[in-house]
TrEMBL record, chains A, B:
SUPFAM superfamilies: Aminoacid dehydrogenase-like, N-terminal domain, NAD(P)-binding Rossmann-fold domains. This is Bifunctional protein FolD. Its EC number is 1.5.1.5, 3.5.4.9. It comes from Methanolobus chelungpuianus. Homodimer.
Length: 286, 286
């Protein structure tokens, strides 16, 4: 089969993210023009972890692109829980901050659950607050986790029917698997959630019309595990010797998929674009 | 096969509820003795719907059995939203009320979502508040919906292994299906959620080690749809000519199940016992 055919199966996360960002940029300009409000995102980074610094930098760059005001609260490694909560309370109370993002993981001496709980749910850009997770579960999606929301947006953009389809989610993390399953259930897919305790994973993946994989296990999903024509989202990232791998063996699986995200350049850029969308939404609701 | 064999497969919800209630009664006495606190449940019933009145009465009777103080707020059909919210706020503020139960459905002129949101999550005996639903989704189960929690308790009491098993939930309501799925995922089952949009329901139910059905469709699940040895919970109730039917064709399905709840006398009594447990928990946490 010609290489061109496979190219058309690749979900281009960068281009999709660009499209979402263009919409957000328009929305930001409209909000500035009509209400004189500039959406603002405050990121909180405790310590100097290089990966976390990079993620925060990527988010700030995205803010620049779409016209969102970004504020960087880079706190020292030695920050106490009370100091951290103080910063969150201050940001909660400020009218010019519409989204608050606490970059995880925190240094071990800090209680990240308590910190996340302290964020005003209306400013919870990441969608991890229990209140927002609960709204998600009962089908009233507001600020929801960005990565699974990015998958939903991609399904919409590529006109993939979800209702009545068998969607299989591999991985049951709070960040991806569980909210992803809830969003697919809300859209009337038949949803199976698999994970490290699943017996015979292949039995489920082989039956998936839509397959979302987020486990962090390099090339867990091989060609013989997917159904002809499946739509596949690879949310996993493994770094090995400076190279980045997904949970899906893309080069071989692409032969059977009808649509599939690569790693990198798939779900990653979409996640950040959705974060921008959330800040705009929060600013509109404020 | 002898009738006795089938009897041993029946999950006796009444006896299980009795066991839970006995534990609650002990806990209530301990709390009274050690902290001089009597757990209190306030029920709010708006209007005169006979079924709702009966449900409230059953809950008050259970309170009596376990030593929980029960308060009945029976408001007239003409109650306004502001009056209802006023009652909820009053109950939120009272130290002697640890659980608040808003009996649904409310009369149509009232906004039940807004009313449920007004209940202090710490007093949310039914576990329907988004904050509690979100805690459930992220695996920090506190006050959770009573019916699925009753199923979990039965699985524990009957020593049914959940981890790694295929649990199939039929129905995706906010009251049963979605929280049930979340609880089973939290316990590391592989979970499939089916519903009215599912193509080929039988394909899923036939593969279920644990099957929970809550659709309100009389005898939806027939003998040819279940796996030999399955553990089956029937959460459905349909009334027809004064008789009550479950979602599972018990008389025939029992031949294949290893354990199965009847309707009535299965999940129903367990739900109320779990409600009592919740009020005790809320009183302990207060």
């Amino acid at each position: 089969m010609a290489q061109e055919n496979y190219d058309s199966r690749r979900i281009d996360g960068k281009s999709l993210a660009g499209k979402i960002e263009a919409q957000v940029r328009q929305g930001v300009e409209k909000l500035k023009g009509e209400k004189n409000v500039t959406p603002g995102l405050a990121t909180i980074l405790v310590g100097e972890d290089p990966a976390s610094r990079m993620y925060v930098r990527l988010k700030h760059k995205a803010c620049e692109r779409v016209g969102i005001h970004a504020e960087d609260r880079n706190l020292p490694e030695s920050t106490t829980q009370e100091e951290l909560l103080g910063v969150i309370r201050e940001l909660n109370s400020r009218n010019d901050v519409h989204g608050i993002l606490l970059q995880l993981p925190l240094p071990k001496h800090l209680d990240s659950k308590a910190a996340m709980l302290a964020i005003d749910p209306a400013k919870d850009a990441d969608g991890f607050h229990p209140y927002n997770m609960g709204k998600l579960l009962i089908g009233e999606e507001g600020l929801v986790p960005c990565t699974p929301k990015g998958v939903i947006r991609a399904l919409e953009e590529y006109n993939v029917e979800v209702q009545g389809k068998h969607a299989v989610v591999v991985g049951h993390s709070n960040v991806v698997g569980k909210p992803m399953a809830a969003m697919l259930i809300n859209r009337n897919a038949t949803v199976s959630v698999c994970h490290v305790f699943t017996d015979d994973l292949k039995k489920y993946t082989l039956d998936a019309d839509i397959l979302v994989v987020g486990t962090g296990v390099k090339h867990l999903i091989r060609e013989d595990m997917v159904k002809e024509g499946a739509v596949i989202f690879d949310v996993g990232i493994t770094e090995e010797n400076g190279k980045v791998y997904g949970d899906v063996d893309f080069d071989n699986v692409v032969r059977k998929a009808s649509l599939i995200t690569p790693v990198p350049g798939g779900v990653g850029p979409m996640t950040i674009a959705i974060l921008m969308e959330h800040v705009l939404t929060a600013a509109k609701n404020a």
